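We include this case.
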Amino acid sequence: IFADGVPLTYTSWMNEDYVGGDFGHGRSVIPGKTDREQRDNLIAMIRFIHSKGYQIGLHATGDRAIDAAVEGFAEAVQEMPGGDPRHYVIHGDFISRDKAETLKRLNCGVAMQPFISAMIADFEPHVVGDARAAYEWPTRTVLDAGANLTSSSDAPVTYPNWRLGVQAAVLREGLISGKVSGPEECITVEEAIRTYTINGAWQDHMETVKGSIEPGKLADLCV
């Protein structure tokens, strides 16, 4: 499901207004005349899909979109507990510590794309302001909250090269300036590699089959 767009085009659904241009706080792509209607319709979609036993991957970049997504996961699980769907937010650019902790409680996750952060870090302050730009892609916050963090490339938006993603997650350096954005959100090399391997396998319900180098698992790796 797509809940919103992306920050650089002022199409992320945010809680606070953008700083560049008269774009307000963006809107969801879910039908609805008001924020409330869009939120309610998104949650109705989540509850319906969950009730059919499917796993949900939900594109949400703005914090208002992420909040609605996580609240929808919570309502769906409360309404129909049991099973192990492992729903996840795709991107989760501005996810809060509180919502990351909720994902942990629900046994859900976040799939981020670290190299996108390196590509856009030098432009984001002009769109969302310095504080939000530094916090964007809060990998350390998500890991410390205990939620499952998966990394991917989002190719063809970026190169399908996991090593660039690991570098970006560890260093958080802007691709153009080399300036570090939000150093408090840096993670270690080992943590970053896990997000591309066993964490991703867990997100796909495949952690007993692949994702780590162990006897009996698929040897889908290169040396």
